[in-house]
Design a protein that fits this description.
The complex is a heterotrimer of chains A (173), B (654) and C (312).
Chain A (H helix, E strand, L loop, with lengths): L1 H18 L39 H13 L3 H4 L14 E2 L5 H10 L14 H14 L30 E2 L4
Parallel strand pairs in A: 1-2
Helix pairs in contact in A: 2-5, 4-5
Chain B lengths: L12 H14 L5 H7 L3 H30 L9 H35 L8 H23 L24 H29 L12 H32 L13 H35 L6 H15 L14 H13 L1 H16 L7 H24 L1 H7 L3 H31 L5 H27 L16 H31 L37 H4 L6 E3 L7 E5 L6 E6 L6 H15 L5 H6 L1 H11 L3 H6 L1 E2 L7 E3 L6
Antiparallel strand pairs in B: 1-5, 2-3, 3-4
Helix pairs in contact in B: 3-4, 3-5, 3-16, 4-5, 4-6, 4-8, 5-6, 5-18, 6-7, 7-8, 7-9, 8-9, 8-11, 8-12, 8-14, 9-11, 12-14, 12-15, 14-15, 15-16, 18-20
Chain C lengths: L10 H37 L9 H33 L7 E8 L2 E6 L8 E4 L1 E5 L3 E8 L4 E5 L3 E6 L5 E6 L4 E6 L12 E7 L1 H12 L8 H12 L2 H4 L23 E2 L4 E2 L2 H9 L1 H4 L12 H12 L3
Parallel strand pairs in C: 1-5, 4-10
Antiparallel strand pairs in C: 1-2, 2-3, 5-8, 6-7, 9-10, 11-12
Helix pairs in contact in C: 1-2, 4-8, 6-8
The chains are: A mainly alpha (173), B mainly alpha (654), C alpha+beta (312).
Chain lengths: 173, 654, 312
């Protein structure tokens, strides 16, 4: 009996997390660009601050992220995730880190060899939506929240049917 | 008949009393929790359907009241768009799938066997299974709503809005699976009622002597069988598009969003009629009883029901006029939509003629039937307006259509239903419904209804679209919206007073005789409420109105075993006795099957593999359900040669 | 602003309005007669003291008569309806002004067609029409199904993704008419309106000439700062202001923002105060709409408003 209640509570919690339609970023989740690219730092070593993506469980944010991915022309370089001018996003290799805050920084700060810095151009909330979507491209968000296919020509499997690819941090080659 | 071996037997009052005791034992309703879950008594299943559906009606009404509060003033902040969209979707879905269809299914399960003079329904376990599916589906929908997974795309869930790209999360899947639940429940219910009508009618009740309500149920349930598969296809294709990534409705890959609309409305329009037709049957029943004379134009009424059912399948496109259709096609559907007014008109004329030539008694049930005239006729007239393509293009998807559909469905179905519930209240409970509170309830309902929905005609003409969570001030919509909200308050009060009346009458109402309204149909020939075995002794039917016109010395049907559940199966057209049949005993497996099918359906929203693995437990329970028991096999059927029931020609009850 | 079926200002709506009144009176009369007969029937039935008979032959005759009458009336209504349908279709002429309207969640993009691409004019949520001239409105949907409806000018037509629909209409009276999306399309279906301004042809010509120009250069210092903010902030991702670096196509074209009378798809009148509120918190005004909340200081926002307000 207790087990059933636990399952029900869990189901309810995940449903609430998944189905919320947040039109604004919940307060306190604003990430100021604090993620570090280098482990070297002055003074005594301290644990780097990490921030998890606030939206990777949220279906609405993921679908908004998917919409913005085309609208802001991420497609132009990364294609539908397979990569072209820019690296592939649906594989397991991560050059600048696979954590939410790392992807956030990559979008906001830009990266050498072509990734523009979108800081100031895309509001934080939308960056987080993009972060969540980028994570879903390699299957690394819950399947019940991940986006399904779009109403256009299909290049790849819908995100919710992709097998999770455990991220491997390759660094810059 | 000539070959029937007529065996004379003396039937005495003592013998009948003894047989009644034995029948009560063999048809005893189940007890305890397991018994509750195993119930196969058609009256209990029917009543469960009715009560559950009315509970959903109340929930749907609460949602409607919330919407009216939100719309009472412009730019109201009471409900946001996200919640409002869920609420209006839940309201429509609830009223269509969890109230209107099941409540008439329940009335059919309760009254069809009684009106055709049968011991029970055919396939009672299937009916029980249907009820549990309906209950689980409804509970599933409301639990989902509380968990914020309530569907939010309208009761029609058009793609692409409900499709994979624009419907994130599981909300649209909830809707699609709810459809599957109610589909299964309606389809099995339809089969049960059709078979009951075809094979369980009492000897003598040829098809043209059957009362109008069973006729309406027969026609309706055939419509269910033909209409429901279309929406099942639509909702399954929708969930496949969403979950598996198929392309049924993806324009870019050869699918088409319009295809969804065609599939949905090929079901959706007949759906309106399968709510409306049983209510037409109720109207005939009420008008006949309270005019105190046989209905005028029996053949015309039955033909109208059948004609409506056929035509009902030929006008779905009038829901899609604004989607841009070829002109000639649109004109065809305009003509078809107008044509369907003819059978409705014929029925109304027959009823007026019945009242004209009858002895009218103004009881509460008749008032509801009269409310039907006042409301439904207006709804029918606005129906003619929206059937015309040019007018429809102006008022389609506005509050004019909201007004129209509520005039048609509340006037055409809910008013007759409430009338029938008052009418049959003594049969359900053994007590008469209170008259004074009943009158108050009716007048509040009637006034509240018109105050709520009449202004909406004007709102629609003034340009207010449907399904808006708010509107801007200064467009001239404020006053009428406020009036509509006031009307909604009156409707809430009406429902409250009806509920109070039910509670008071059940406790302290006047005890009802077998036939308190002096009606003519067979359900009134047995006690109120009926015993588990419905009738004993049962006489052969000799006319359309057996309680008014049958001679007192009609032969009694004999030769059916009383020591076990045995029913007499008759032939389809002439209701001649065919064979005896064992009616199944209570059994918990229909409940278990429904439980496991529900789990499978819900789990399949999350992974398609649930369909594969989830089908194993229902398979096991189905095997248990149909596992033959020696006792039942032996008694399963008795061909005519072996045991033809005797119609005792000479002796009636003393 | 007028948004009423019964206040037609164009030929198409006028045809429907005239049919409306015909059918309205027919159905009203029929309803009154049926209810009157019902009333008499009830009075007779309630007053009856003798036993009822079941000789219904004369009743059957009345029912048959009423049914035949019903068929005749229905046929009349059908003919009236088909006549209107044909008349509506007769407006489909070839030499018309072509306007492409694309419906987005939850606003309308309007493009006046011209053989030369640079002569085309793009605006949003506002349709200007020359009085007395038939226009063909090509309807497209970019995301879900919407429905284009200006009650005073014409019946509605759905914009369905992947399908192309054309609506012919003609405004006959100068004036300002309101239109609104009529197919449920998500969160902000309620606030997806637009304005139709019908004006004399010469005035229309002046307007379209003005619209062809690129955006006004900011004159005041404040407005210049506003332009600077546009170009360095998120605005450019979605909006186009021709003549500046802003070239996004996701949101309404703002080149002649201040020539329009409303903002947020007909939701608010375009006053500096409303524009300021909208920029401060668009999600409070239209929850769920696609305009994100921007992190702008009050001073920056004031500059932005000043710039937008001079984009005539």
């Amino acid at each position: 009996m207790r087990c059933w209640i636990a399952i029900a509570v869990l189901l309810a919690a995940s449903a609430c997390e998944r189905e919320r339609r947040d039109f604004k970023l919940p307060n306190g989740e604003q990430l100021t660009q604090s993620t570090r690219l280098s482990q070297l730092q002055p003074g005594s070593p301290s644990q780097p601050m990490t921030v998890d993506s606030p939206l990777e469980h949220n279906a609405y944010a993921l679908s908004e992220g998917k919409r913005l991915y085309s609208a802001y022309n991420c497609v132009g370089c990364h294609a539908q995730g397979g990569g072209a001018i820019g690296p592939a996003l649906m594989d397991h290799r991560w050059i600048y880190g696979s954590r939410g805050d790392q992807i956030f920084s990559t979008i906001v700060q830009g990266r050498p060899n072509g990734m523009p810095a979108f800081g100031g151009r895309i509001p934080d909330q939308q960056v987080w939506q993009l972060v969540a979507y980028v994570q879903s491209m390699s299957g690394n968000v819950p399947k019940d929240a991940a986006p399904s296919r779009n109403d256009d020509m299909q290049a790849a499997k819908p995100e919710l049917r992709r097998e999770p690819k455990p991220p491997v941090q390759t660094g810059h080659r | 008949m000539s070959a029937t071996p007529v065996v004379q037997r003396e039937i005495t009052d003592e013998a009948i009393a003894a047989e009644r005791i034995e029948l009560a034992r063999s048809w005893a309703q189940a007890r305890g929790v397991i018994g509750f879950l195993s119930e196969v008594d058609h009256k209990r299943i029917g009543l469960r359907f009715i009560i559950t559906a009315l509970a959903f009606f109340a929930l749907g009404g609460v949602l409607a009241a919330l919407m009216r509060i939100q719309l009472s003033v412009p730019e109201n902040a009471f409900l946001g768009p996200d919640l409002y969209n869920q609420i209006f979707t839940m309201h429509g879905t609830t009223m269509m799938f969890l109230f209107a269809v099941p409540v008439f299914e329940g009335l059919g399960l309760y009254f069809v066997p009684l009106m055709v003079g049968a011991r029970t329904i055919a396939l009672p376990r299937l009916a029980a299974f249907g009820y549990w599916m309906f209950l689980f589906g409804g509970v599933f929908l409301y639990v989902s709503f509380v968990l914020n997974i309530g569907p939010d795309n309208g009761w029609f869930s058009y793609v692409p809005l409900a499709g994979p790209e624009f419907g994130p999360g599981k909300r649209a899947d909830t809707w699609a699976q709810l459809i599957t639940f109610t589909e299964v429940a309606s389809l099995v219910g339809a089969i049960v009622i059709i078979v009951t009508i075809f094979k369980y009618r009492r000897p003598g009740m040829t098809l043209d002597r059957m009362p109008i309500f069973p006729w309406a149920e027969l026609v309706t349930n055939f419509m269910i069988i033909f209409a429901m598969p279309a929406v099942m296809l639509a909702s399954t294709a929708l969930i496949l598009d969403r979950l598996v990534g198929t392309h049924f409705f993806n324009q870019a890959q050869g699918g088409d969003p319009i295809l969804y609309q065609h599939l949905f409305w090929f079901f959706g329009h007949p759906e309106v009629y399968l709510i409306f037709l049983p209510a037409q049957g109720l109207m005939s029943t009420l008008i006949q009883t309270f005019s105190g004379r046989p209905i005028v134009g029996y053949a015309a009424l039955v033909t109208s029901l059948v004609a409506t059912a056929f035509m009902g399948f030929g006008l779905w496109v009038h829901h899609m006029f604004a989607a841009g259709l070829p002109e000639i096609g649109a004109s065809f559907f305009t003509a078809a939509s107008m044509m369907i007014a003819i059978p409705s008109g014929v029925q109304i004329f027959c009823w007026i003629a019945t009242l004209w030539s009858g002895k009218v008694r103004f009881e509460v049930p008749l008032l509801y039937a009269l409310g039907y005239f006042a409301i439904f006729i207006i709804g029918g007239m606005t129906g003619l307006m929206v059937a015309s393509v040019p007018l429809d293009l102006q008022v389609h998807d506005t509050y004019f259509v909201v007004a129209h559909l509520h005039y048609v469905l509340i006037g055409g179905a809910v008013f007759p239903l409430f009338g029938a519930l008052h009418y049959w209240f003594p049969k359900f409970t053994g007590r008469m419904p209170g008259h004074r509170l009943g009158m108050i309830g009716f007048w509040l309902m009637f006034a509240g209804f018109n105050l709520t929905f009449f202004p909406m005609h004007q709102l629609g003409l003034d340009g207010m679209p449907r399904r808006v969570y708010t509107y801007l001030p200064g467009l001239g919509w404020e006053t009428l919206n406020l009036a509509a909200t006031a009307g909604a308050v009156a409707m809430v009060l009406a429902v409250v007073s009806i509920v109070i009346n039910v509670i008071v009458s059940m406790r302290s109402g006047e005890v009802a005789a077998a036939n308190p309204w002096d009606a003519s149909t067979l359900e009134w020939s047995t006690s109120s409420p009926p015993p588990p075995y419905n009738f004993h002794p049962a006489t052969v039917v000799a006319s359309r109105d057996p309680l008014w016109e049958d001679p007192p010395d009609q032969p009694i049907i004999d030769g059916i075993r009383t020591d076990r559940r045995e029913v007499l199966v008759t032939r389809l057209l002439d209701a001649e006795p065919d064979h005896r049949y064992h009616s199944p005993l209570p059994n918990v497996w229909p409940f278990m099957t429904a439980l496991f099918v529900s789990i499978m359906l819900i789990a399949s929203m999350y992974t398609p593999w649930a369909v594969v693995w989830g089908s194993i437990p229902p398979t096991i329970t189905l095997i248990a359900w149909f596992w033959p028991r020696r006792k039942e096999v032996d008694d399963e059927t008795h061909p005519v040669e072996k045991a033809r029931p005797r119609l005792d020609e000479a002796t009636g009850p003393a | 602003m007028i948004q009423s079926v019964l206040e037609s200002a164009g030929i198409q709506a006028a045809r429907v309005e005239s049919e409306w009144w015909t059918i309205f009176w027919i159905t009203t009369i029929v309803t009154v007669i049926v209810l009157a007969v019902l009333g008499i029937a009830l009075k007779r039935g309630a007053a009856r003291t003798d036993a009822t008979t079941s000789h219904d032959a004369h009743l059957h005759r009345y029912i048959a008569f009423a049914t035949v009458l019903t068929v005749v009336i229905l046929f009349g209504i059908l003919v009236r309806s088909i006549v209107t349908t044909r008349a509506l279709a007769s407006e489909r002429v070839t030499d018309v002004m072509q306007i492409e309207v694309t419906a987005y969640q939850w606003w309308w993009s309007v493009e006046y067609q011209h053989p030369e691409p640079e002569q085309r004019v793009r605006t949003a949520n506002e349709l200007r029409l020359p009085v007395g001239r038939t226009v063909a409105i090509k309807l497209l949907a970019s995301d879900v199904i919407h429905s284009f409806w200006v009650p005073s000018l014409s019946g509605k037509l759905d914009a369905i993704p992947g399908h192309e629909a054309v609506l012919w209409l003609r405004a006959d009276k100068a004036g300002v008419y309101r239109g609104q999306c009529a197919e449920y399309c998500g969160f902000q279906h309620a606030h997806m309106a637009f304005v139709v301004v019908a004006e004399p042809p010469d005035q229309f010509e002046r307007w379209i000439q003005a619209q062809r120009k690129t955006a006004e250069q900011p004159q005041t210092e404040l407005a210049q700062r506003g332009l600077h903010i546009v170009q360095r902030s998120a605005c450019v991702m979605c909006h186009t202001i021709r003549g500046t670096a802003a070239g996004g196509r996701m949101g309404p074209d703002l080149t002649h923002f201040a020539s329009r009378s409303t903002i947020a798809a007909g939701t608010l009148p375009r006053t500096p105060e409303h524009v300021n509120n909208w920029l401060a918190d668009p999600q409070a005004i239209k929850p769920g709409n696609r305009m994100p909340t921007l992190a702008l200081s009050d001073a920056d926002r004031a500059a932005l408003v000043a710039y937008l307000e001079q984009l005539r």
